[in-house]
Design brief:
This protein has one helix at 7-18; strands spanning 39-40, 43-44, 50-53, 56-59, 64-66, 70-72, 77-83, 89-94, 108-111. It is mostly beta strands and 115 residues long. It has a domain at 37-81. The longest helix has 12 residues, at 7-18. The model is unreliable at 13-17 (pLDDT under 50). This is IGF like family member 2. Its main location: secreted. GO terms for molecular function: signaling receptor binding. Keywords: Secreted, Signal.
Length: 115
């Protein structure tokens, strides 16, 4: 026979073992560590603040030179050569989200030759 002092403890253990094992959490509060973290080479980066460009992690606000007359945001734009030869002309094109953007299929953001 179980002493009366331990009866509440047995009931508590029984309830814990038999209760559902599902954790109830607010919608959209999934833990960050359980999601795949974006990588740039072998480094992890925060896509809300950074992007991966040529295997380097850049801040979203960083710019780069595109030809002699233009700057562009590598996180949001592509620097595309328009022609080769004696005069190298460049065009800045927009990256399309969710797609592996390429120069031949992206919309033009600015024409560096006309500046």
């Amino acid at each position: 026979m179980v002493p009366r002092i331990f009866a509440p403890a047995y009931v508590s253990v029984f309830l814990l073992l038999c209760s559902p094992r599902e954790v109830i959490a607010p919608a959209g509060s999934e833990p960050w560590l359980c999601q795949l973290a974006p990588r740039c080479g072998d480094k992890i980066y925060n896509p809300l603040e950074q992007c991966c460009y040529d295997d380097a992690i850049l801040s979203l606000s960083q710019t780069r030179q595109c030809g002699p007359h233009c700057t562009f945001w590598p996180c949001f734009e592509l620097c595309c050569p328009e022609s080769f030869g004696l005069t190298n002309n460049f065009v800045v094109k927009l990256k399309v989200q969710g797609v592996n953007s390429q120069c031949h299929s992206s919309p033009i953001s600015s024409d560096c030759h006309s500046r």
